[in-house]
Amino acid sequence: MDFSTLRTLISRYCVGEENWVDSRTIFIGHKEPPPGTEAFIQQRFPDNRIVSSKYTFLNFVPKNMFEQFRRVANFYFLIIFLVQLIIDTPTSPITSGLPLFFVITVTAIKQGYEDWLRHKADNAINQCPVHVVENGKVVCKQSRKLRVGDVILMKENETFPCDLILLSTSRDDGTCYVTTASLDGESSHKVCVLYSMCVLLKYRPLGAENLLLRGATLKNTAHIYAVAIYTGMETKMALNYQSKTQKRSAVEKSMNAYLVVYLCILIGKALINTVLKYAWQADPNRDEPWYNDRTETERQRHIVIRAFTDFLAFMVLFNYIIPVSMYVTVEMQKFLGSYFIMWDDEMFDKELGERAVVNTSDLNEELGQVEYVFTDKTGTLTENNMEFIECCVDGHVYVPHAISTGSLHSTSHLCGFLTLLGHFNIIDYTSILYFRPSKCPMFMSISSYLNLFFRALCLCHTVQVKEEETVDGIKHGIHQGKSTSFYISSSPDEVALVEGMKREDEIERFELLEVLTFDSVRRRMSVIVRSSSGELYLFCKGADSSIFPRVISGKVDQEGLRTLCVAYRPLSPEQYQEVCHLLNGAKLALQDRDKRLAEAYDIIEKDLILLGATAVEDRLQEKAADTIESLHKAGMKVWVLTGDKMETAAATCYASKLFRRNTQILELTTKRTEEQSLHDVLLSGDYTDYGLIIDGATLSAVMRPTQEDSISGNYKEIFLEICRNCSAVLCCRMAPLQKAQIVKLIKASKEHPITLAIGDGANDVSMILEAHVGIGIMGKEGRQAVRNSDYAIPKFKHLKKMLLVHGHYYYIRISELVQYFFYKNVCFIFPQFLYQFFCGFSQQPLYDTAYLTLYNISFTSLPILLYSLIEQHINMDILKKDPSLYRDIAKNSLLRWPIFLYWTILGVYDAIVMFFGAYFLFDNTTFTSNGQMFGNWTFGTLVFTVLVFTVTFKLVLDTHYWTWINHFVIWGSLIFFVVFSLLWGGIIWPFLNYQRMYYVFMQMLSSGPAWLSIILLITASLLPDVVKKVIWRALWPTTTERIQVGSYTDMLLSMYLTPINWESTKNCIHHCIRVFLDNHIILLSTVNNAACQMSN
Question: Where are the transmembrane segments (predicted)?
C-alpha cells in the first residue's frame, strides 16, 4: 500500500509548513532521475490554477445562506418566520417570510454576480496561452495546465504565469529585466541574473536575483527560457493574497445601535401586552367569551407555556418595527450610488484616459465624514516627474537655465561648466559604459572635482535605453506621434540626472567591473569602473544621510530640493582585488548571504571623497494647493507622510499651501532632540495654531516611551495633544510601516476621528489599508495602491469633488434613508400596538396580510430609494465654492441620538394621530350612505391609507431636488397603492381560502367622511414637522439652510428682474397643469368606477 499521500498530508497540515514548502527537488523538463540516484519519492505539487472566488456552483447556496444569516437582522427574522410556522400566530408566515426571502434573494444575486466576475477574471488568467517546451518542441498550453518542472518560453512584454527560475536569456550578459508593478507597485526595471546549470545545482544557492515571480513582466529582453518551481496557489503572489479587513462606516454602526434600541422597544411592547392580556383575562367574564372559546388542549396547558407562547405571538405581531428591508435598500443605494462617482466627467483625466474607480461601495457615506487626510507627497501632491534643477560641486552651486540646450547659469566657472556639461552623454548601461569628455581648452582649468562629478553622474546609475512601450496603459517613448528612445530606471531621480547629461560628442570608454546595487537600508549605490587608461574608481551616489558619515573630505550646500550626494574613491589594483575577494565570498555564501553582502558593501563604501550633490525638483500637481486649501476650509486636518528629507518635503508643503509663510513651525526632528531632550521639546511652549514637522526617528521615540524616566510619562498622549491643535503636520523620513502607525494612532485617539489615506505607490498601501477610507492615485508607481484602495482617482485634485460633493451628498442621502426607515416603521406598527387595547389583547392584527407584506417592499420603498440616489439639497457648484458647508455634516451630525429621538417621537405622534383620529372621527359615523357598517378591516384600511400617504408626503417635504423621475416614482407609488387596493378587494381571488378585504377599500372610498378624515389626518400628522422646520430655520438656521434660502431668493429675484419669456412660461404652466390633471383624472376615474361597481 502506498502511504505517500497520507504522509504528505500529515507533513503539510500537522507538522508545519517548514517541512514541505522550503525544500523541494525538481527535475527540469520532468526528466527521470539518473541511474544510481538515491530513492526518490515524487512530490505532489498543485496545478497552476488561481482561485480568487468565494463560491462554487455546489456550495453557493449553503455558504451564502450561512454568511447572510450571520447578520443579526436576518437571523432575527428567520426566527420570527419559524415561530410563525410552529405556533398559532395572529399573522401569516408570509408576512415575515416574503420580505425575508426578498432581502436574502437580492443580496444573494448581488454577491453571486460579484463572485461570477471573480470567476470570470480567474478563467481569463487560467486560460491564457503559455509556450512550453516538450520533447524539444515549443507547444502552447493553457496556464492552468502548467506543472512544476515545465520549461517555459517567455517573450518580451509577457507576464510570468508562475514562479520561475531563469535558465537562458537572449541577452549576452546573462540577465533579463522585469517590472513588478502588479506585485509591489514599482514600475522600475529590475534585473534577474542567469546562473549556469552546474553552478545552479552544485555550488551556488538560488537567490532572489534568480527568481522570476508570477505577475512580473519581462522587459527589455527578447526572450528567456525558465523552469516552473512554484505553481498555482503556492506562488508568492497567491501566498501574499490577504483579504482586506472589512471596513464599517459610522452610518452602519449607527444603524446597528438604532436596531438594538428598536429591538428593546419590540421586546418591551411584547412584554407589556402579554402582562396586560393576563391582567385583562383575570376577570372570568373576559377569560373565555362566547365568540372565542378555548379548546380543551389550551385549557390544560401550563400558564407559563401559554404566557411564553403569547409573548412570541406578540413579538411576531410587532416585529415589523425592525426594518429588515432597510438593509437591502441601503445595499442597493450604495451599489447604485457608486456609479455616480464613476460616471462623473469632471473626475475623468484625459491624459491618462482614466475615470474614478470604486473598489468598494460600502464606504460612500464615509467620504462625507472625513476629519483627517493623510497624504503621500511624491506622485500624490507632486507629479513624480523629476527635473534636474541644480548641482553643487566643491561648494559652488550651478543653476541650469535650460538643461535641454545645455545652457546653465552659475555663480562661478560659468563658461567652463557650459562647455563641460555640453559634452557629456550616457549611451547605455552594459558591461561597457561610455563617457563623452570635452576637448575644450578651458576644461583643464576647471576643478578636478567638477570633472569627476560629471563622470560619476554618467557612470553611477542603472539606467536603460528603451524604445516605445506601454506600462499600466500609459505609452512611453512617443514624441510627436513617432517612436523615440527613452530612459528607464529603478529611480526617477536617475532618469532626471541622465536626461540632464544627455549630449552629443566623442566617446570615452569605461569598463564596468562591479555594481553594488541600491537597497532601502543602505540608501545608496556604487559602481566600480576602469577607465581606458587603466585607472580604477569607485563612484558612490545616495541620500545625504547615508553618504555624509562615509566621506573624509568635501562639502556641499543644498537645501529644499531632492538631493543625491555623489562621492568617489580611487582604487589601487591591490584594493580592487580585496574588493573582489569580499564580494565573491559574500555572493557564494550558502547562509546569511544578504547579511554578508551588506557587510561587504559597508567595508567597501568608506573613506569616500565628496564631489558634490545634485538637486532635482518634482513639480506640484495641478490644483493641488487649491485642493488642500479647500480641505482646510472644510474642517479637515491634512498630514503629509513622506520618506523624503525634511527640507524637500517642507518646500512642497509651502508650495501646496499646507504651510503658510506666517505659520509657526514646531520641529520634532532628530537634530532638535539631540540639542534638547524629547520631553522638553514636547512640553515647551504654549502652541495653539501651528504647523508640526516630525521625522521617522523622533516618531519612533514618541511611540516607544522610556520606562526609566517616570517624569516623561507617555509621549503618545502629549504628541496627540499637540497634533490636535496643529493646523497641518509634515512627517518626513517615514517608513511605510510608520505611515500606518501614524494613521492607527490617530484612529485610536479618544475622539475616534474618521481618517482618509491617499497615495500612489506600494509604500502607501499599509496606510491606505489602515485608514477608514483608502484612496489610490493612478500615478507612475504602478497600480498596487489603486488595487488595495477603496476608491481610486486619476489626480489629487479630484479629491476635492469626491469629498466636498459626492461625500456630502452620500451622507445626506443615507442618513435620511436610515432615519426615514425607522420613522415609517414606527408609524406603521405603533397603531397595531394601540389597537391591542381595544381588542382585549387578543393579538388581532389591524392591517390585512397583504398590507403587512407589501408596506416595506412596494408601497414605501421606491420613493426613499430614489431620494437616496439623486437628492441634492444644495447645488454642487455651491458645495465646491463653499467648503465650509462640509462642517455642517461633520461628526455624524445627522445620525446623533437627539435627531434619532426626534424622528422616533415624530413617528409615535403620527401613529397616535392616525389611530385616534380615525377612531374619534368614526365614533358616531359608523354607517355609510347605504346603511352598511364600517368594520375593523375598514378601520384598519383607513389607518393604513393615511399612513401610506403621510410617510410619502413627509418625504416630499424633505425633497429639495425635483426631476421627472421623482414625480414618477412618488406619485406612481401612491397610485400603485390605490390600484392594488382596488384590485385586491375588488376581485375574488381563487387561491385565497377566505377574503376578508373584499370590497372593503371601495366601501371606504364611497364614504364622504372617509375622504375628509384622510385629508385632515394627513394634514394634522405633517403639521408639527412643518412648524418645527419653520421655527428652527428662523431662529437657529445652519449654514446649509441659509444658503438654501439664499438660492431660492436668488431664483425668485432672477425671475422678477430678468425679462420674462412668456411663451416658454406659458408652455411650462400648461405642462404642469396637464400633469396634475392627468394624475387626478386617473385617480378620480378609478374611484368612480369602484363606486359604480359597489352600487351595482
Answer: 72-87, 257-280, 311-330, 850-870, 900-922, 934-956, 968-992, 998-1023
